[in-house]
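Predict the 3D structure for this chain.
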Amino acid sequence: MTLSEELTWRGFAHQTTLDDLRRLDGKPLTFYHGYDASSDSLTVGNLAALMMDRCFLRHGHRAVLLAGGATSLIGDPGGKDSERPLQTARTVEANVRAVERQIQSILGGNIKLVNNLKWFGKMNVLEFLRDVGKHFSMTPLVQRDYIAKRMGEGGAGISFTEFSYTLLQGYDFLRLFEHYGVTLQLAGSDQWGNGLSGVDLVRRVKGAEVNVLTCPLIVNKATGIKFGKSEEGSVWLDPDKTSPTQFYQFWINCDDAGVDSYLKIFTELDKPTIEDIMAKHGANPGARYAQTRLAQAVTEFVHGKKDMLFAETVTEYLTGAAKITGRDKAAIAEIKKAIPSVTSKPDGSVVEALAGSGLAASKTEARRLLDSRAVSVNNERIERENFEPGDFDHGLLLIRKGKKFKDSALVELG
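Done. Predicted structure below.
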């Protein structure tokens, strides 16, 4: 499969200035991809872009990864309805270091890392206006979707600081073209306008053709919401912000409508393998075979096999696929991060456990749940109002409301 074929099959190709995507199948080129430094970790959304980068690397192209040490001090207005709060230079510098470590972990060492603070930090305002600003016409800039939305009726407005962001990113492309031979920018679809600024600036200053290719915004097809969000917020690549278990469970809970696309975008499994996975999934969607393979592949890729296997074990406890036991102390500690826990006597009240854990809003609601057979203990439906000593294994049991493992609580003898 050629690069252009793989980009199309995996769903990476969206907007591009290339007249024919097959031009990418020729001799190796140098591309760049910029990453925001507004946080000290990348997210699942950024992972999609990194997987596109890996696709180019597999096909022999060279990568320059640009950390936005300068542009993150300004803030990208793209996709935002209001002004971002500005961060300190020290915070951005720490974020750049953290994000670069993640990028190297995912892309390997055969990449060039650069920081645009290197050139913008030395440029004064007169140089910027003379060497960059004079090449941009205001007319097309104010017509850019994200700028027009902010400036239009009902918009929050846009400061000159954020308005200038697209000029800064345009200059990034020019600088990288001059010093590293970069001829292609890869970006998310929200960066299309900024990419065009770079293409136009290189043409005006150097008379050369460069191009931009964006990947689409990944959307949860079941909800229409931007992909990479959980009930707790963003899903981070940093294990201290989103644990490997939480990360694994995010993928396990992916929607059926999008799982085929997620396998193509977030894994490097080949076409026959993914087709086989989807055939098995289609035969029994309730078993969530595709989601399981997705969770295994992505978690192992990002966090390693050991953490993936541990996350898988914890998830088996939470889903009732394996009986919870007090012997696995590390798993119990992780479970307590995911679900609430309460204490009970060996013959304690199920009603009180449901109410005390928050699975039921009140004891009255807890009794209604029991009467409707909506409560299970260790994955077995019950109607009785009291636990029995045999329910506990090494002093623990799992109580659940309904079928979702998130609607569960850990009950400890105490």
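The chain has three domains: 3-215, 229-319, 334-413.
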